[in-house]
Design brief:
0% strand; mainly alpha; 92% helix; rod-shaped
Length: 156
């Protein structure tokens, strides 16, 4: 038995090599074909993944460019809107000042007209008072029968 155990290890390396040779003979062409196919698939997969990466990078670059352009357009629009609002506020302020001045002038004119009419009314009232005194004096003279002598009040 010891002899058979010794023979087995010696046969095993030789048998392993012969099994590989038999396998190469039986499956060799198929294995070479599979290796060739896997090599081609690996090359195509690498090429397509590289193309996909390049396409994704290109897409990101385009998106960043569009975002930058959009941001720039929004900034420009915001600046234009700000300028427009400032101009409109300035215009409204000027209109308010002009309207205020017109209102003040109108009030001054109205105040002047009121004062003028007040003076006229005061003068008219004074004239009525004088007329009343004169008529009162005439009535007194008529009562006294002294139509020819003027009263001391009418000499004023």
């Amino acid at each position: 038995m010891k002899k058979a155990a010794k023979e087995t290890p010696e046969i095993a390396p030789a048998a392993g090599a012969s099994v590989d040779q038999i396998r190469d003979i039986i499956f060799g062409t198929q294995m070479a074909e599979y290796e060739s196919r896997f090599g081609e698939l690996e090359k195509r997969l690498l090429a397509e993944s590289k193309a996909l990466r390049d396409e994704i990078r290109k897409g990101f670059a385009e998106m960043e460019e569009r975002q930058s352009e959009s941001s720039q357009k929004h900034d420009e629009a915001a600046n234009e809107l700000g300028k427009s609002l400032e101009a409109r506020a300035k215009e409204l302020s000027q209109n308010a000042m002009r309207d205020r001045e017109a209102l003040e002038n109108s009030l001054a004119d109205a105040r002047h007209d009121i004062m003028k009419r007040l003076d006229e009314l005061t003068a008219a009232k004074t004239d009525r008072s004088t007329l009343s005194e004169l008529l009162h004096d005439v009535a007194a003279q008529l009562e006294n029968g002294a139509a020819s002598t003027p009263s001391p009040k009418s000499k004023k």
